[in-house]
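ingest -> validate -> predict -> emit
validate: passed (alphabet ok, no gaps, 560 aa)
predict: started
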Amino acid sequence: MLSLLLLTYSPSVWALTVEQRYQDVRGDYLTLLGSPLKQQQRQNWLEVIVGLEEFAASADAGKRRDDARYLLGRAWHGLARASGNSDDARQAQKVYEKLATDFPQSHLSDDALIYAAEIALETFTDQRAAYNYYLRIIAELPPGDMLADAQLRLNRLAAVSAVPAPAVSAAPPAERSASSAPVALTDIRVWSGADYTRVVLDVSGQVSYEPHQLGGKEPRVYVDVFPVALGAGVPQEQRIQNSPVSKIRAGRFDQNKIRIVLDLTAEVDYKAFSLENPQRIVIDVRNSSFAPHQQSAVPLLGLDDSIAHILRDVPTSDTATLHVPQQSGGQGIRLIVVDAGHGGKDPGALGRGKTREKDVTLQMAKRLAAALRRSLGCKVLLTREDDRYLPLKDRTAYANQVGADLFISLHANASTNRNAYGLETYYLNLSKNNQAAEVAARENGTSLEDVSNLEAILFDLMANSKINESSRLAAEIQQALVQHLEPSYAPLKNLGVKQGPFHVLLGATMPSVLVETAFISNHREEKRLNDAGYQKRVADAIVLGVKKYQTALQQVAARH
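emit:
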């Protein structure tokens, strides 16, 4: 019996189990690579990524951990190429960098940094970052099969650019130890609105920091971080529009210190604090005074006006605070912006019948706009009227700058469970469950990790009364959808009103909702999404919900 137990729990059996698990997740990745059709759907990439992440994070991954990390980087890299999303490319860079940092002896680390440099050049046209990646292969890693290639690329890059050699020790790998590796500033992430900006400094370990503020003609906030190295790929300058911060600059102050400078457009109040797990420094900046909401002076010249034209012509110095439609004086809801989800190079979710989310959302958005004009007699503008790509932040920026009273974003849901079906309406808030986080990650075009980062940013916005108004609007629309569609489209599941950190709603200064009109991944509901009758009923139901919301506003106004 004892010998049987020893056999059962022998290391060779455990190793075989780990190897089989690795081959399973690797097989999923290779299967995806072999199917160009599957590569078109973001969810397929995310499934592979989650599998690789789970294996790499498991305690018994052992000698296959670096292999899994490498495939994880390749999966993010493949998703970035399929989606054209720079956030996906940045995530691939981070995975590649972490592999080289955590496993410098791995034969895959030099390959990872070569790919990281490729992203730096092709996606971000950042020659300095690429130079640093090549230099790390030469200076920090043991000699490998990519050494000569890295040296050749480094020389070629130096010959065609004015990239100076960074301050990186060229000591032989034998003289370097893991404990001597400096803590690095790995990324600078920014969320910004008209009167609020949050800057997050991601660092690879514990650091000290000193915040300062300067007034005068060129006001700025700057934070010195030490001891820290400037990581490859960290942007040295980021410009920000319609914000109390106009520019963020990062550079080495001395051998021990990096200085982060926030150039300001106005006098601000700020606070800086550190967070752990992961390590980061947060800088919050707010306008010291808030201007009352004013409608944009931009003339609304009709639906043919492009969003780019509106955004370009509105002064970036305009500030915007929360705007709730006012019923006094007979004003009411005068202007609604309807957003057709996805578009252009971002197809959204793909149905089994090859229906693209971006196509059906545009069809429904046009129907909804016409129905709103007809029933409410208000002005309605679309964020897009054709198959074009729009960054998520530009959609709410457009709604803010034309002075919209409501913002409604239309989408089609998707799930790995082909049997999932139903209707749900979201408003902006902290995500309280994994399902909402997964929907937000898909619609945002980001990872679940990015959703968690966004939740931290949203924590400071919880007191904003826009959330209450948005939840009320979402409730009215969801109820109207179910009541209006259920008699004709059974079975129909009411998935309710939910809250989540959706980028397309972030920054809107008016009540705003995101409507998931059906599951495109469900064969029955994919057919509905392509049906003109279903699209019309969805539009009519949303109009009914908006009417009920307007009535509720009128009742509140009558009591005051």
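The longest strand covers residues 184-192.
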